[in-house]
Every structure is written in C-alpha cells, then in structure tokens.
Write a structure and sequence with these properties.
It contains 11 helices and 17 strands. The protein has 344 residues and is α/β, with parallel strands linked by helices.
Length: 344
C-alpha cells in the first residue's frame, strides 16, 4: 500500500486547477509538479497550490521520480500524447473525459495502456452524483423493475463554446457533454449501446464564426431492448440560471424516476440584475475545501489507487463511451443508423 502518492498535473486550465487543489489538500496525496505548454500558467498553478516545481516539457516531468501518478486535464482532443507518455513512464493516470476523440487515438492508447501495467481511470464524475447513485442503487435492487426506456437531456449555455473554450471547434458538444450522457446511461442500466441513430443541426454557432454543430438528437438501442433518447446542445441562452440544462427520465416496468438536475430548489439567489441557483452539487467550496461530486471523483481515485481497489470507472468504460460517440457522429453525418463496433 502506498503511503502518500506524489502527483503531477498535466494541463493548467479549469480542471487542472481542481486536480491540483485536491492533490495538494488530501492526506494521502501530494502535489509534486504542474506541467503546461504555457510556462506562466504552469508556474501560477504550481505556486497557487504549493507544488514543488513546474514544467513546460512533459517528458521531463514524467521522469520526475517523486511522481507516481498524473492527472491529465488537457483539452478533449489532446489526450493521446500525454496518456501514452504517462503509460510509457509507468505513471498511474486519472484522465479527464473523453478518453479520445478518434478511432486512431483509441487504438494507440489501448495498445500503450495494455503494455504498461499502470492503472487508469477516466473521470466520468457523474457516477458520483448523489441523485444518480440513488437511482442506480434502486435499479440494481429491482425497485422499478426492468428498464424500458431512458431520456437524458444534457445541454450547455452558449457561453461555453463562444467564450469559455478557446478550442471548441476542435471538439464537439458530444465530446464535451455527450460523453457524460452516454456513460451515465451505461452506468444506470448496466447495459451497452448496440446501435445509434442521430441527427444534428448547425445554425447558431456557425453564424457566430464557430464552425461546429449546435445540437445532436440521438436514439440509442441498448442491450435487453432498452431505448434511450439523448439531447446534447450548447446554445442554451446565457440568461439561463445555470451553465447546464439537465433533465433525466428512467422508465421501468414497475416504476419510474424523473430528475430535474438543472435548478435545485434548495437555494435560490436574487440579485439586482439576475436570479440564479448557486451550485450545491457539482463543485461547491465547503469551509474552504473542494466539495461536490465533480471533486469527489478525483478524491475517490486517490483513495482507490492507494488501497489497490477497483476503480468505479476504468479505461474500458472510457474506450466504449468514445466508440459510441464516434458512432453517433457518423450516424449524424450519413443520416442513417450505425452499429457500434467496439473491436475496430
């Protein structure tokens, strides 16, 4: 059993900050270093959380003997290089979703991972979301019978692709949120996706100079005949009270779950020029410490790595989710159903 795990953070953006914060405050982890191609960002994040050093060269950081594990928080499309490098360096890995965004990257990453002997988890943090976990426990207990259908809407405000992400055109709402959507349905049902049919539309963002689809509407045929409908868009008006617009329905043979996870009713805030619902579930700060399910997944990785326990979500989960998303994108392109090939 490891006593205190030395961590390196790759990518000094929003999620890199969360990784660094938690590695520097948990009793069984220590933040050793931060790496980013932009030295000012690496230095600032390292100093903020008292890392011992910072790097702009990934290979140099991965040679650091005090680092046993890394958190990879680079943009969606930039996971292959640091993941494979970490595998080859023998470092355990917590990778922000998605695992990869191309078939080629998936193949290369799978080969490197299987050769390496390292442990890896993909950060689908919705699996730590209390309402979803309560539903999952009930489903496993047979409380609502056999799942018949599922509907999941997970959208973002237009702020995200136009202002928050400088690299939105290199990604997609399917990678940014759709990967969470697919993994959550797999998690809740315990079943895999067999075939998909999707349509997309490009209208709003293209006119704003961001050349990517606004929305995907998809039907997923899953094992045991489960039918799932999903919606992912990132053009919700910025006047929306929260970044996310989230609705979920799970229909069983003996019962049903309905969830509106957009607007918690536990707290409403009214200000001179706006009203909103402050975050109490995803990543609130409680007594100066990172809290919420998006942070709990990182914390859980530390504890399971230290105790040699099975991860809640692993490399294979990430691999399968990416294969489903790629099938959805292909379906939307050809406007025909597409079988999901997990072995390609």
């Amino acid at each position: 059993m490891m006593e205190k795990i030395g961590f390196g953070v790759i990518g000094a953006g929003i999620w890199g900050n969360s990784h660094a914060w938690i590695y520097s405050t948990e009793p069984y982890s220590e933040l050793i270093a931060v790496c980013d191609k932009v030295e000012e960002k690496a230095k600032a994040l390292a100093e903020k959380y008292h890392a011992r050093r910072w790097y702009t060269d990934l290979e140099k950081m991965l040679k650091d003997p005090e680092i046993q594990a890394v958190g990879i928080a680079t943009p969606d499309f930039a996971h292959q290089e640091p993941f494979i490098a970490a595998c080859q360096a023998g470092k355990h890995i917590l990778l922000e979703k998605p695992l990869a965004t191309t078939h080629e990257d998936l193949k290369l990453m799978k080969t490197a991972y299987e050769k390496s002997g390292v442990r890896a988890m993909v950060d689908f943090h919705a699996r730590w979301n209390p309402p979803l976990v309560v539903a999952k426990n009930n489903i496993d207990q047979g409380t609502i019978g056999e799942i018949i259908s599922m509907y999941y809407r997970l959208n973002d405000t237009i702020y995200v692709p136009t202002q928050m992400l400088s690299w939105a055109e290199k990604s997609s709402i399917l990678w940014f949120l759709g990967s969470h959507t697919v993994d959550t349905l797999r998690f809740l049902s315990g079943k895999e996706v067999k075939r998909v049919y999707s349509v997309s539309r490009s209208e709003v963002l293209v006119k704003l100079g961001v050349n990517i689809p606004d929305i995907y509407q998809s039907v997923l045929e899953m094992e045991d005949g489960i039918i799932a409908s999903i919606e992912n868009n990132w053009i919700v008006p910025n006047s929306h009270p929260n970044w996310n617009d989230i609705k979920l329905n799970i229909l069983g043979s003996k019962g049903m779950f309905n969830m509106d996870l957009t607007n918690n009713q536990a707290i409403e805030r009214y200000l001179p020029e706006k009203s909103d619902h402050p975050d109490i579930l995803v990543m609130p700060t409680i007594h100066g410490k990172p809290s919420g399910f998006a942070h709990e997944s990182i914390r859980d990785f530390i504890h399971r790595l230290r105790n040699s326990e099975k991860f809640i979500v692993d490399f294979e989960d990430g691999y399968r989710v990416s294969k489903v998303i790629l099938a959805i994108m292909e379906s939307a392109k050809i406007r025909m159903p597409v079988e999901v090939n997990y072995n390609s």
